[in-house]
Design goal:
This protein has a single domain, classed as Ribonuclease Z/Hydroxyacylglutathione hydrolase-like (Metallo-beta-lactamase, Chain A, 4-Layer Sandwich). The chain has 9 helices and 16 strands. It has a 7-stranded mixed beta sheet. A hairpin with a 2-residue loop joins strand 1 and strand 2. The longest helix is centred in the C-terminal third of the chain and has 18 residues. It is globular.
Length: 319
């Protein structure tokens, strides 16, 4: 598939095209949880890449923003009975001004897309046993809390919170450049939830490979932010990887197409190359959190360029 062709922005997002359903993968069941769209500045999303190049593929709106989504992953373990939710979107706490700035498809109107999406999967927030945070930027953890009658409340009252320790230190003591991504209404309640907060039990030997249970582990990346974890689900020789902000869109496959938001872009470049090589060799499916038009992709190197070679919805994946 040629991702250099422009996206038709009149098309509905991947999540709006169909109703998601539970999909069996080995000892797990998977379900997308759509938490709404978000529009981010195209220049920030593509860093040093000239606008004349990225705008051909993802044409911006009149505010220079490109359309993205916040697609989270619900994982039910058929072995342990645990119910994991990977990320939870931006939440509903933004005021009308911030909702407008980011083009959020919910929030000021009082809609709660996270909860309604969970309900369509037949799940209540109280049933979630584990929140896996890829990282704690506002568009990944904002749904953890909400205001109820003016009081900041945990949306998932029975869930354990899983954060990489390096990232937790970054989020609670951020550098000035990254500080705006860590909102107090998000980070404070997570950091203070001592009884439910689990900083991943990583040692020197597994700091880059935490394991939740057999078949569900994570790959740790340090380019976008320290300690970003990408959940990896395995069944036999088949692998699904939730790539979060390492590949926010299919247009970010070229090694140097790196977000301006990334703290350590040369590290991101190395991590992208490593993941692309392994994903190609082992035919991984990459699960896309932010790509509004692609749910799942496979990649390959064609004539020296990394490209999408297959796409699918989660519903249509055949294992």
């Amino acid at each position: 598939m040629d991702t250099s062709r422009p996206i038709d922005l009149s098309l509905p997002s991947a999540g709006a095209i169909q109703d998601h359903r539970w999909v069996r993968f080995g000892s797990f069941e998977l379900h997308w949880i759509e938490t709404g769209d978000i529009w981010l500045d195209g220049g920030a999303m593509f860093g040093i890449v000239p606008k004349t190049l990225w705008a051909r593929q993802l044409p911006p709106d009149d505010k220079n923003r490109i359309p993205m989504t916040m697609r989270c992953l619900l994982i039910r373990s058929l072995t342990t009975g645990r119910l994991y939710l990977v990320d939870n979107g931006a939440g509903n706490k933004f005021n009308e001004k911030m909702t407008s700035i980011y083009g959020l498809s919910y929030g000021a109107k009082g809609e709660k897309q996270l909860e309604s999406s969970l309900a369509r999967a037949g799940v209540q927030p109280s049933e979630i046993t584990d929140l896996i945070f890829t990282h704690l930027h506002f568009d990944h953890c904002g749904g953890t809390t909400d205001y109820v009658d003016g009081t900041l409340t945990h949306v998932f009252p029975n869930a354990c919170y899983h954060v990489h320790p390096d990232h937790f230190r970054t989020a609670t003591k951020p550098n000035p450049r990254e500080q705006a991504s860590f909102l107090p209404d998000n980070i404070g309640p997570i950091a203070s939830a001592c009884e439910r907060l689990y900083l991943l039990n990583v040692s020197r030997d597994n700091v880059n490979h935490p394991v939740y249970e057999p078949g569900l582990d994570a790959l740790v990346m340090n380019g976008h932010t320290l300690g970003q974890q990408l959940p990896k689900i395995t069944s036999g020789d088949q692998h699904l990887v939730f790539v979060a902000d390492l590949f926010p869109t299919a247009q970010h496959l070229p090694l140097v197409w790196i977000m301006g938001y990334d703290m350590f872009p040369t590290q991101t470049l190395k991590e992208k190359h490593t993941i692309l090589e392994q994903a190609t060799a082992e035919q991984w499916w990459l699960l896309m959190e932010h790509d509004r038009f692609h749910e799942c992709i496979q990649v390959g190197n064609i004539d020296g360029r990394w490209k999408v070679i297959a796409t699918s919805t989660l519903n249509d994946l055949v294992f």
